[in-house]
Amino acid sequence: MQIKLRFMGAAQNVTGSRYLLEANGVRLLVDCGLYQERELRGRNWDPFPIPPNTIDAVLLTHAHLDHCGLLPKLVREGFRGKIYCTDATAEIAQIVLLDSAHLQEEDAEFKKKRHERESRRGAYPEIPLYTTDDAKDSFPLFSAVKYEELIPIVGVIEVTFHDAGHILGSSMIKVQLKIPTKTGVSQNGETRTILFSGDVGRWDKPILHDPTLFDEADYVLVESTYGDRLHEDSKDIDEILSEAINSTREAGGNIVIPAFAIARSQEMLYHLNTLLIEDRIPHLMVFMDSPMAINVTEVFEHHPELFDKEMVELIRRRESPFDLPGLKMTRATEESKAINHITGTVIIIAGSGMCTGGRIKHHLVNNIHRPESTILFVGYQAVGTLGRQIINGDKEVRILGQMYPVRAKVVQISGFSAHADRDELFKWLSGPKKSPRHLFVTHGEPDAAQHFADFLRKKTDWEISVPKYQDEVTLD
Ligand SMILES: [Zn+2]
262: CA distance to ligand 1 center in Å? Predict the structure, then answer.
């Protein structure tokens, strides 16, 4: 039996995760993510490298857009198999895909108008990459699995999902292939195990379990987003957070927190709740001002079985860790606007996480010029975003077409990353007792991936490579 692996994304870059595994005439696609790097976004428009109707099943590690964001296009172009993932991933992915489709539609409309005005054509068509209907068409194909449950796919292939500790429902996926003998598939015969790391989470973080460690694997694909660095200590989170809240309260301003809808917004509620219980912050009104974050929080509430023991303890002390006193979930636009009329200090959690769109922009308009308010950053701010400009200390920023002076206090907490750093990735790889036959370093910028591969070469005697986009290898 020949086993082939093809790297159709997240190979020497971070987004667009997509790997094709082919064995015994069966084709499995692991993840089907959207490219988000500006210079690679054109790949989203390319036809699939293989006909989608020849793929037997998709295995989805988790619900981040760079892992699931091209599923609607795959389905529109003919894929009819099952999309296996955990039930929490299915629920969050559907929220993410609807939001993505909506943004694609808005973008296309906006581009069309702008190009008409400028009488020119852009690099990509002025149609959405996929529509809300395309996204909805993919939903019936989702097939929920449980962690550690053995799933027979087709013929000689079995798959198990394991907790990755990265976001709610996130998985590492182990694919086992039984090598057929001359007399057929032997029950106890040779197998090959291929382990897909997905995004590796972190140890000892609140809410989620630690990443799963594995005893053995013949082939391993490991992500390397932070393969070239170490995270700062995350113990200071509560310290910085309570300091920012207390001093802003004293000054009489608001605390505005740009946060990603998945995971980070819920983590903020967790930390606020903990600080309240420990009496380290006063009772204030807290607004979760993001319909998407509210929807995702509901998914968290459906899945207490995915929480770690600290979270279980928190639930034991309060009814819900996401329902602290003073919390208001604001779905409607009018409710969101009404926040501006409240006098006295409030905490506002809103998206988008990098201030590139969404309701956060309105809250920045109302607070960024106020020296008594605080803008509190809790996530990564990419180059070129409004969030990055504010963190960089720009004295004036453009928001919704108008310039505003930055007079508010700007605070950054960097201990929140959901990705393992270099040493944590190494810890994960140190699980297996025997060396893998080959290790593929994926899902990282070229420097990070290469750096991590070199680090591993010094520490081990493994065969290691850093595959490129569209590379194909045969696994023996
Ligand atoms: Zn992720």
Answer: 10
Residue 352 preceded by cis peptide, ω within 30: yes
Q: What pLDDT, on the 0 to 100 scale, is given for residue 121?
A: 76
Q: How far is the CA of 201 from the centre of ligand 1 (A)?
A: 9
Residue type, 361: K
Q: How far is the CA of 197 from the centre of ligand 1 (A)?
A: 11
Closest Cα partner for 84 from 7, 209, 174, 3?
A: 174
Interatomic CA distance for residues 178 and 25, integer angstroms:
14
Residue 431 neighbours by CB distance under 10 Å: 15
Q: What is the distance in A from the centroid of ligand 1 to the CA of 382?
A: 16
Residue 329: the pLDDT is 95
Which residue numbers in the chain have pLDDT < 70? 181-189, 318-319
Stated pTM of the model = 0.92
How deeply is 77 buried, as exposed, middle or buried, from its count of CB atoms within 10 A (0-12, 13-18, 19+)?
middle
Distance 171 CA to ligand 1 centre (A): 10
